[in-house]
Design brief:
This protein is of the alpha/beta class and 212 residues long. 31% of the residues lie in helices and 23% in strands. The protein contains six helices and eight strands; from the N terminus they run ββαβαββαβββααα. The strands form two sheets. Strands 3-4-8-7-5-6 form a six-stranded mixed beta sheet. Strands 1-2 form a two-stranded antiparallel ribbon. Helix 1 runs parallel beside helix 2. The two termini are 18 Å apart.
């Protein structure tokens, strides 16, 4: 679901079965069909190259939490980033080619695994350059860091503003809790697929009406 943090309402939802496309697909699909300019804020499950590039191609903006620089599975690995707070641009070339050139320059290229999905490389276009902004900051009152990837402009959105935007993400988590328990979406009573979809939409509409 796409949740508007300002109006506190759900503005779009994709209902899919477990065998269908993943959450990243739902996010960038909603970004692609969104009429106005928006910043799509999400947790680190959505920090995939494919998801971020689709949102950029849709002319939208994103701010996504990512695994920190020390994580083995982080997008930020191999970028040689400082172990401190920073606001830096990172760039690499994504490819499925395992050439000697690619292997010899891990600082320049990033190999895509066979299991990963990336819609922008092909036999005719095996190299795809990407460039993002990474902001790393300390969590208030703690020594831990959070890292976010974004395509927001540094002049319009300095690091302090990025941190404020990230903190707004907790409003999404609170809304999910209200939708699940206050709007009673924790249990589905219908059995038929069409009835299940109808029940989900009814609960979302109920939530929005209560907020209004």
């Amino acid at each position: 679901s796409a949740y508007d943090i300002i109006s506190k309402r759900y503005v779009d939802t994709i209902i899919r079965g477990s065998r269908h496309h993943g959450e990243q697909y739902s996010m960038y699909t909603m970004a692609e069909r969104f009429d106005e300019k928006a910043i799509f804020i999400a947790d680190r499950n959505y920090s995939t190259w494919n998801n971020m590039e689709h949102i950029i191609k849709a002319g939208q903006f994103f701010l996504v939490r990512v695994q920190d620089i020390h994580s083995r599975t982080s997008n930020l690995r191999k970028f040689n980033l400082p172990d401190s707070e920073f606001d830096l641009d990172v760039e690499t070339i994504l490819t499925t080619k395992a050439t000697n050139e690619v292997k010899a320059h891990p600082d320049k290229y990033r190999m895509l695994s066979k299991s990963s999905t990336f819609d922008f490389v092909s036999k005719d276009n095996p190299y795809y350059p990407v460039k993002y902004r990474v902001v790393r900051f300390k969590i208030d009152g703690a020594e831990e860091y959070e890292s976010v990837i974004t395509n927001l402009d540094k002049d319009k959105f300095p690091a302090d503003e990025i941190k404020k935007l990230y903190n707004l993400r907790w409003g999404i988590e609170i809304s999910f809790r209200h939708l699940k328990y206050s709007a009673d979406l924790s249990a589905i009573h219908a059995r038929k697929r069409s009835s299940i979809r109808q029940e989900i939409w009814a609960r979302i509409l109920l939530y929005n009406l209560c907020i209004i």
